[in-house]
Amino acid sequence: MNKKDEIWLIGNAHIDLSWLWTKEETIHEICPNTFNSVLKLMEKYPSLVYAQSAAQIYVWVEEHYPEIYEKIREKVNEGK
């Protein structure tokens, strides 16, 4: 396979902050479950890259789940 035949995909989870669930559910269920799942997948698949576009989610994770936030920071520093 040469370069022109490559396809690059970026993992993403679209999290509506308070649409199908409450703000509290988003903070305490959706966000930690999503990030924990992605972090596990990154361990299993080292080439996995993930994008989360909602900055507010990072604020909530940093505030409520600092251990998850630190793991996210590590992955960001690795370019993932």
Question: Can you describe this structure?
Answer:
- The protein is mostly helical.
- The protein has one domain (17-77).
- It has three helices and two strands.
- The two termini are 24 Å apart.
Shape: globular
**Low-pLDDT residue intervals, each spanning 5 or more residues:** none
Strand order of the largest sheet: 1-2
Q: For the residues shown, what is the average pLDDT?
A: 91
* Secondary structure tally: strands: 2
Task: Spell the H/E element sequence.
Answer: EHEHH
Radius of gyration: 14 Å
Total of domains = 1
The biggest beta sheet is recorded as:
2 strands, parallel
In short:
The chain has helices spanning 23-44, 55-64, 66-77, and strands spanning 11-12, 50-51.
What is the secondary structure topology, with strand pairs?
Elements: E1 11-12, H1 23-44, E2 50-51, H2 55-64, H3 66-77
Parallel strand pairs: 1-2
Helix pairs in contact: 1-2, 1-3, 2-3
Task: Give structural attributes.
80 residues; 55% helix; mainly alpha; single chain; two-stranded parallel ribbon
